[in-house]
Amino acid sequence: MDEQPESALTVHRAAERYRSEPGPGIETRHAFSFSGHYDPGNTHFGALLACNEETLAVGAGFGPHRHRDTEIVTWVVEGALAHRDDRGHAGVVRPGRVQYLSAGSGVEHSEGNIGGAREPVRFLQFWLQPDALGGEPGYGTRTVPDGDTVLAAAGQLRRADAALHLLRAEPHRPLPPLPAAPYRYLHVVRGGLGFRTRSGPRGVGRELEPGDSLRITGDAGPQQPVAGPDGVEALLWEMHSPLRYG
Description:
Elements: E1 8-12, E2 18-20, E3 26-30, E4 48-56, E5 61-67, E6 71-78, E7 81-85, E8 90-93, E9 97-102, E10 107-113, E11 121-128, E12 138-143, E13 150-152, E14 162-169, E15 183-196, E16 205-208, E17 213-217, E18 223-239
Antiparallel strand pairs: 1-17, 2-3, 3-4, 4-11, 5-10, 6-9, 6-11, 7-8, 7-10, 9-12, 13-14, 14-18, 15-16, 15-17, 15-18
């Protein structure tokens, strides 16, 4: 059985992310140690290996490159993202759809701003460790209907104890209840939210804006989270175990 983490809640601001330009017209902001940004104290959280905020200018994109043994989940914020891989999969992802790529034993893919675009495409991409290495790569996209809070759950991810939830709330309304888990990672996509670090008069009020995130372990959690004046859209990873080694 995995050892349970100590209870903690930490805020990570958008401006604190590592910034890189891996190619012409590409800007990436990394939440964790990644590529040339090595930080031994910030390599992952729970089973989450990466949370990258990507912006691709018109005509820009990542050429063919290879992944293996990683679950890759993509959420488009603005614009349209084109995907193609060497397993014969191709698709276009727009806001309101989620894309899932299980690299398994190995897959080569490319992704870029859609042909003919007149605006950049902005998207979030999460990398998650799978339960088992190898296996046949898989791919899919799915529209997320209004009121549907789960983007990728155990039936879609090759990580049986993790799920990704979509949280939305109208201006000044409370957020839906957060699922309980030893590891929770919340990323604000649009709008903002306010909360208290603990209940009662000793709790400190905090606010989150787009790109800000919360890392929550154990029994800690934001108290009375409420959407800001523009409402809120957030993504939350529920994870019941950390990285597994060996």
